[in-house]
Amino acid sequence: MPRVRVISRNFMEMVAGLPPAKLDLLYKRHWTCQAVLRSLPPLAKLYVMRLLYVEEAVPSKSLQDWALPDAQQKHQVAINRMEKLRVILVERKKEVCYRMNPVMQKQLLQALSISKGPPRDVMPGNVAVRLPTPAELDTYAMKQWESVLLQLVSSASSEAPIVSPNFFVIDMFKLAGLLLSLKPNSAPSITDTGFQFLLMDTNSQLWQLVQVYVSAAEDRGTDSGELIGFLLELGFHTVGEAYSVGALTTPLQKVLEELAALGLVQLQKGMKEQWYIPTKLASNLSASLSESSDMQSSEVLGTQGCIVVETNFRVYAYTASKLQTEILRRFARLEYQLPNLVVGALTKESINTAFSSGISAEQIITYLSKHAHPHVAKRMPVVPETVSDQIRLWESDRNRVELLSAYFYDDFPSTEVYETVLNHARSIGGLLWEDASNRRLVVREELHGDMRLFIRRQSGAAGQRG
Amino acid sequence: MSSAMSAARSDDVSAVVILLDVNPYFWGTKTSTGFTFEQFFQHVLVFINCILLLSHLNQVTVIAMGASACTFLYDSAAIDGTASGRSKRDKQPESRSTTITQKLQEFVKKDEAAETNLAPVENQFSNLSGSLSMALCYIQRILRKPTAPPQPRILCVQGFPDAPQQYIAVMNSIFSAQRCSVPIDACIVGSQHSAFLQQASHITGGIYMKPPQPEGLFQYLMMVFATDLYSRQFLQLPRSAGVDFRASCFCHKRTIDMGFVCSVCLSIFCKHHKACSTCGANFNVKKGGQKRKQPSS
Amino acid sequence: MVNAIKGILISCDIPMAQFIVNLNESMPNAHKFIVYMLDDTHIYVQPNVGEMLTKRLQEFRDQNTYEKPL
User: Fold this and answer.
1) Total number of domains in chain B
2) Chain A: residue whose CA lies nearest to C58
3) Mean pLDDT of the B13-41 span
4) Does B134 map to a domain?
5) B184, B277: one domain
6) CA distance B76 to B150
7) Residues ≥6 apart with Cβ < 8 Å to A387
8) Is B50 a domain residue?
9) B178: distance to nearest CA of chain A, Å?
10) Is the four-CA dihedral A413, A416, A421, A426 of positive or negative sign?
11) Helix axes A30-39, A280-287, angle to 10 degrees
């Protein structure tokens, strides 16, 4: 499912949108270079590796020769990405030449010759730190992330909120367009985009929120370049080790609390010091930057999928999580809820409710297959064909009739006039229906003004001629 | 062959198993170009860093091929990223190169000790068959992991020429690699071409290359062998000029052009035998004794 | 002189077209909304009936649904 690529590409677009000076500053940091390298498409990565030891500019023709003739499109995509991110710089001599960004080149050469440890030093052993076990850390991360999503979901359901509102998170959702306050002081309600967001996989959701967060950071006084650098570095920290908060700059320290609310780090306090422990979510953050990451969302948080879909349209979810239940409630009719199992069915009504709130059939099917229980995950396809076909049929059932506002033209004086008007309508892209034998046609409403002028000119010309 | 492999994954995560030739008989003699073992080892270490830099999911395993044995030198997947199992937190983590060098030194010592027991003729060749089998078993283990495994491939860096007595074992490993769609790449740093590895890369769809300038080994490794299986369909890579398909006979392990073939199991012999040593088929044929089916008129 | 009529173009499949024609017949004369029946799958109707049509189509769809009571 290409969702992660779209969102993370947006993040890299945002990085690429930084002014060149800031970008170069970012590339002075070792770990940002690595993160950006890993986010490139596979072909681009190999090109960077090849150019790493080359000091002078290489003509673009030589670069083109590296790729096979039928792979030229991929080659071009790779070159464009690299240029946008200022990984390679263009030099124009007799022809277009490319050279690697020297700042980045230096950092990557260092990375190759010395395999460095994580970016920051781990807390020294003299400070008593009670490290959480990996399992505890995972549960913490999952709990935090679920409570974030529950904010979104509880505003979707009309009953009393399941979880107490966290205003920082709600603000972010509003900025991302997932929640909308219809009236100034009323509680916000979820939008169509919000529903689609719920059904995306964890990495895409994380990236979207991070993107919104970074764009809003400027308004709050944090330098977005520094923030991006820190976020990219976070992925290289060892999961489960404590890092001192004091080692970070002041604006970054403020940022840490909000990152803890998202579940990316866990904050702990000692006698004099504070430290933060990155979770698996943080390490997966930079991993999912690359365009082609196939990771399942269940791998991200270490939780396994839990949904079984049967050919009789029944859905069994072996979970106790409120979030999963709420999401399932969006498109399935829940029948029973047991301590570790939720039983429901996919009915035409429940799916139609989902459609009317903006979710598409593909999203539902992808969600069900991504969160499949391991027992059925190996089945091909994961969701039975009967179920997936029927969901798509229900969707197309809603689109049976297409209504378009239009204008109907008939009573043309002659065939030539009709033909001219017809071709004109076709060229402006507004032709909806034609009937040559009776000289009638239908054009879109918004192009009516254009059509009227054209016809008047035609009739005027025809009148003069005739 | 290549399309089947790339259909599995559409990204560039790879698991590379590097088979390093550390045979002292080869590296001890002065090569014509003056390429020493230290230089070679440095090139390989930086190459390992390069592969691990490309993606956080990439895995590298190094197996050393000695004269009589082979052993695992390094496995990037075995080193845990989490803090579990770290008792002394004050100690700095050992760098990759130090770990590999230490293990290599231990292995070479063991290898030397083991060699003195063998006859001098047999122990001049590197143990290619042994290391190929080890690599394939390890790859099978990776492929059985529950999470989506990376695409594995084997890179063999060999200096010493082929050992004819290892023909059968090497061919068996090549065919198993073909079955699991694991390409075998070969980089020859010695002076002679290796028929085994040419056949291996031809059959499994890997790349075979003998760099004309061994001092630039790292450049060749980076340009050609660092490419992952997905990107190989888009890049211009060295093609094999010709493959030496000659077989070795099963009885004396000599390379032959013409010989006798058992009609049951297809084993090759250079001299006429009374019975096949592999499958036990009897070759004794009495003149005119065989019944032949008469064609129905 | 060319005649221009404002309205809504409906493109659908043949059963739905027949359904709309039937709906048209059932309306009293003052409320008949079909301007032209263009062909089997296209109908031209008056501009103000868009919402009413969608509602009727929805009702028609729901008529064919049976939901098992909880």
Assistant:
1) 2
2) A398
3) 81
4) yes
5) no
6) 13
7) A309, A311, A313, A346
8) yes
9) 25
10) positive
11) 60
Condensed to tens digits (0 to 9), the pLDDT of residues A13-68 reads: 777 777 777 778 888 877 788 888 888 888 888 888 888 888 888 888 888 888 88
Q: How far apart (Å, rounded) are the C-alpha atoms in residues B248 and B267?
A: 10
- Examine the domain organization and report whether B128 and B257 are in the same domain: no
* Structure tokens given for A466: 């005739």
The full length of chain A comes to: 466
Q: What is the mean pLDDT of residues A166-178?
A: 75
Name A17's Cβ contacts closer than 8 Å, sequence gap at least 6. none
> Domains of chain A, with CATH numbers?
18-113 (1.10.10), 134-287 (no CATH), 304-398 (no CATH), 406-465 (3.30.70.2610)
Could you tell me the residue range of the domain that residue B23 belongs to? 2-79+96-245
Q: B119 and B265 share a domain?
A: no
B255 and B133, same domain (yes or no): no
Q: Are residues B52 and B122 in the same domain?
A: yes
The alpha carbon of residue A44 is apart from the nearest alpha carbon of chain B, in Å, by 10
User: Exposed, middle or buried, B116 (CB in 10 Å: 0-12/13-18/19+)?
Assistant: exposed
Residue B140 lies inside a defined structural domain of this protein: yes
For residue C36, which residues of chain A lie inside 8 Å, CB to CB? 408
B109 and B209 co-located in one domain:
yes
The DSSP call for residue B224 is I
Tell me how far apart the alpha carbons of residues A408 and C46 are, in angstroms, rounded to a whole number: 11
Q: Residue A287: list chain B partners with CB under 8 A.
A: 56-57
DSSP classification of residue A224:
H
CATH of the domain at B170: 3.40.50.410
The interface pTM score, or ipTM, of the predicted complex is 0.85
pTM of the model: 0.74
B123 with B260, same domain: the answer is no
Summarize pLDDT for C31-47 with one digit per residue, the tens. 888 888 888 888 999 88
Give the per-residue pLDDT at A341: 94
Contacts of C20 in chain A (CB under 8 A): 401
- What pLDDT sits at residue B138? 92
Pairing of strands B14-21, B59-65: parallel
Per-residue model confidence as pLDDT tens digits over A236-277:
777 767 777 777 777 777 777 777 777 777 777 766 677 777
Location of structure tokens 């014509």? B32
Nearest to B76 by CA among B45, B110, B109: B45
One domain, residues B42 and B188: yes
Confidence of residue B92 (pLDDT cuts 50, 70, 90): very low
**Measured between CA atoms, how close is C52 to chain A, in angstroms?**
12
- Pairwise CB contact (< 8 Å): B54 & A293: no
Residue A75 CA neighbour count, 13 Å, CB half? 18
Distances (CA, A) of A137 to A140, A151, A190, A463, C67: 5, 22, 30, 83, 44
Question: In C, which residues are within 8 Å of A335 by CB distance?
Answer: 70
CB contact under 8 A, A413 and C53: no
Going from the C-alpha of A248 to that of each of A230, A245, B233, C26, the distances in angstroms are 9, 6, 44, 75
CA-CA distance, A79 to A83, in Å (whole number)? 6
